[in-house]
Amino acid sequence: MLVMSKLYNLHTRSIDFVLAYPQAEIKADIYLMVPAGIEINTDGEDVVLKLRKNLYGLKDAGRTWWEHLYAGLEKMGFKQCMAD
After folding, report:
1. The whole model's pTM is what?
2. Which candidate, 54, 52, 76, 77, places its Cα nearest to that of 65?
3. What gap in Å lies between CA 20 and CA 1, rounded to an integer?
4. With bands split at pLDDT 50, 70 and 90, how would you rate the model's confidence at 1?
5. DSSP letters along 9-51, please?
6. Average pLDDT over every residue of 14-21
7. What's the rounded mean pLDDT across residues 7-26?
8. How far is the C-alpha of 84 from the C-alpha of 82, rounded, in Å?
9. Whole-angstrom Cα distance, residue 35 to residue 32?
10. Is residue 50 within 8 Å of residue 29, measured between CB atoms?
């Protein structure tokens, strides 16, 4: 891509998505135990937390982020190049 832009004198830009994965909703139900040091008033009951967004390190985090990005770009009118 950079070689082509140089050959044809095209302007290029790059983007770094700092918090990319947490932008996408997760499709599966994932529950976590309350981390040590966090106090939640539960009246003595055991409590778990349900994830609503992706986290780095989840097995499907990259795929979920890609689907989220693809849907957003498609909604804006971009089309995927089939010659990649």
Report:
1. 0.57
2. 54
3. 22
4. low
5. T--------TT-GGGSBPSS--EEEPPTT-----TT---EEE-
6. 76
7. 81
8. 6
9. 8
10. yes
And the tokens for 39? 């106090």
- Token digits of residue 54: 């992706």
Token pair in block for residue 37: 């040091």
Interval 23-79: pLDDT, tens: 778 888 989 888 888 888 777 788 888 988 888 888 888 888 888 889 999 999 998
